[in-house]
Structure formats: C-alpha cells, structure tokens
Amino acid sequence: MGKACFMGIDTGTNSSKGVLVDETGTVLALHITQHAMENPRPNYYEHDAERDWWGDFCTISRALLAQSGIPPKDIKGVGISALGADCLPVDKDCRPLRKAILYGIDARAVEEMRQLTELYGEEKIRAWYGRPLCSSDVMPKILWIKNNEPEVYANTYKFLTGSSYITAKLTGNYVVDRFLGLASFNPLYDPKTWKPVPELCAPVCRPDQLAEVREAADIAGYVTASAAAETGLAEGTPVITGTDDSGAEAISCGVVEPGKMMLQLGSSVYMILGTGTLVDDERLWREEFIVPGLCDISAGTNAAGSLTKWYRDNLFPDALEKERAGGPDAYQTMLEGVEAVPPGCDGLITLPYFAGERTPVNDPDARGILFGLTLGHTRSHLYRSALESVGFSIQQQIRLMESHPEVRLDQIIAVGGGTQNHIWMQIIADILGRRVCTPTETVGACYGDALMAALGVGWKGFENYASLTNYIRAGKTYIPDPAVHAQYQKFQEIYDSLYEATREQSHRLSALVNR
Asked: Most C-beta atoms within 10 A of its C-beta, which of 68, 129, 160, 341?
C-alpha cells in the first residue's frame, strides 16, 4: 500500500505553483508555471482563465505526478487556491464568456461603486463592509459586466472566482468558500444562512448566478472522468472547496489564532492578521476568516514584486541580459551596491503607487512618486528606495491595525517570492522594528492547500486547523537593528504624508491620461 499524499495547487498573478506532500507534511514534489497578466487599459487587469488557470492546473498536476512517481490513486485529496475577489462569468458548460476581471488591482468599476453606494446608502455600505466599497469587492465588478457587456451578462450561468472555476472544472460543482463568498461578494449572501439574498442581488445579478457557499475544507466533489483525463488525477479523487491565495498562504503560516500575521510578498503585498472579533476601519479590510470562529483584519499594497520587476525591465536591462546569457539571476545582480546605500537612500523616498493603491488610501488614481531626487542619486539608490517603500507601506498599515486596542500582533511570518531577497527582508524588519520570520517550507499558498486537503478528508493528524501548525516549521528570522529602525522612523513620517500632499495633483494627472 502506497503512502497517502495530498496535492495543493495555487494560481497567482504571474505564476501558478503546486506541491505534493505526504502525511508528515513533507514536500515530495514542486512545480511552477508562468503566465502573463493582461493590462488592456489603465486600471484594467485580466487573465485568460481557460489558459492561465485551468491550463496551469493541468500542467502542474501532471508534472507533480511525473516528478514524484506517486500513483494517482495515492492522492487522497486535492486543495485549490487562486486569486481572490476575481469575477469570471461562465456558461452552463463552465466555459468562460470573457477574460477574468482580477482582484483589487482591477479598478474599472468606479462608476458601479458610485451607483451601488447611491442605491444602498453610505450607512448600509459601511455596516456591511466596515468601510466604503472598493476595487476588491466583486459586486461592482458583476454590475460592470451587466452595464457594459449585456450579452455576456445575459449568457452567464455563474459568476465565479478563480478557485470556484478550477473546482468546477474538476468536479462539475459550483461552490465558493465562506471566506470569499461572505466577504468578497458581500452583501449578496446572507451571513447566517449563506444563501443569496434575492432583494440584494436584484440590482446586480440573479441569485441562481451565484455559487453555493461552503467551508474552505469541505469536500466540494470528486474528480470527474473528463477532468481525470486532462489532469492525470484518478477519477473520484476528493476535491475540497478551496479558497483565495492569500487565505491559503495565511494557513500555511499558521494564522489559526489571534495575534498571528501572514505577510505575503508576491507581485503585491497582502497582510492578514488574526483577530478575535471584527474590527471596523474604513482604511483596511476585515472578514470572518477561513478558520471557524477566527476573524481577521487585512491590508494590501498593489506593487511589490511587480515593482521590482518594473525596475528590472526598465532600469536594469544589463542585469537581464546577463541572466539570459547564463549569468546570475537578474534580481541578484540588481542588489549589487544596494547594501552600500544608507537607510533612507540619501534623502530619496518612493511612493510605490505604480498601479494605484488599495489600502490604506483605496485610490486607483494614486500614482507612484520618486521624492527627493538629486544628481547624487544612482540607480542603486532608486532600487533600494523601491524596496524601502514596500516596507514603509507595511509599517503604515500595521500601525493602523494596532491603533485599535483590541488588536494585538505577536508574530509576523513572511512568505512569497520576496522572502528570497534577504536584503529586502532585513530592510523590512528594520523599518518595522520587529522580528520577521519565514517558515522552512516557503512554497506558500499551495502548501496551505495541501494541508487543508488533508484536513478536509479527515486524515489522521489533521483533525482541525490548530493541528496544521504541527506541520509548519520555523525557518530564518530577521532581527531588526534598533539604530537603523530609529533612522527609518524619520523617513517613515515623510512617507506617511506624501500621498495626502500629492493626491490632488495625482488625480489631475490621472484624468489627463485616462480621459
């Protein structure tokens, strides 16, 4: 009899990643694929779901099986996560009717947010969300399709997220997890019954166009014969409902109780801090988390890895050329000289709003700024300032979280591709003035997916969410330098004031470009 294994596959902004783990939580195989995010117009960000989501899943599933040599029948459960708060309309055969509209980075539905706020009233909106409507909400995205693509809307059988779509392709069942359903689709579902509310859905969509809400680790269904043929999985393999990538990544970090924070450093930054209760702050987000009984307060910075990629492609073409010629990774070359630049970059501060911004400003028309440039600055100064800007953004948002007396922060666990940049990690620790840990298994959300799959099928040793922490092992810890932290605090004050000082001009500039 073969060993029991669990597959987890996560779809992100620029790549998808999958793992096979055994019943001890040990990673047996890992595979990554790349895809492109499309940006057809300012504030529009899309994926081709058939190619980028389902295509990646099939490629990774087959690669994991081939790499590990594990027989498909030994895969006892499959877990899925994908970009959260997406909007993908599909027909009755689960065929996408348009490109998927992505999460909060896509800010096309500004007019729809205005319409819905006017319809329901600001008081109701704040009662539902604890803040105004923002680009991370699915309801305005659905209404945008209804307003702008009536033929697509008329033919839509279901409006899905990334995880819902992949689960449907695997099992034929249309489900969304409670975490995504009740938060991202708020207020279309009743928070007590988890059923669509007809009178609230009416201005936006039909209740039958929404997926069924289940817990993330509930069995959503079983791999169909057609899905088995495409993925290499055994027909009948259990598939859990799944969730969004950030939620799954938080589970992989052990965010199963109040005080634990996941700091996800990918194309963007996403922070999830476990809390005992819902905390209202219109500058941030709050939800009932994946773990039953646990809430969270969260925040998102639009540009992190996407910012370093922009620097690579535009300011360091020589580093990219060296990599293509067989030399070191371009990002490693870009770090040469960065440590010689002092904290604060000799008076250069970057506002990283290169793709607008989510929290705390919730402004798609915010713009990136290089403030304090002089003839003495080099590209190493510019790059270090970009890295520091992400740290300043994280610190700004943590301070907002901790301004609420009921919120505590005991531990920060960092995950994602950014953790491979050790200079960046030390910069962040120094700016925060806090220890920042990384787990031994840094594969991220797909590891959380695999653990939740084991939990979902009730495998021994995976009895509840608290038990998952037995499989999460501590890795490297970055310890802040108090003297450097003190230096950074002075620059943090200027960073915190830059947006308000330039907001009006950023909006004028945005209007000139987008009109």
From this structure: 160
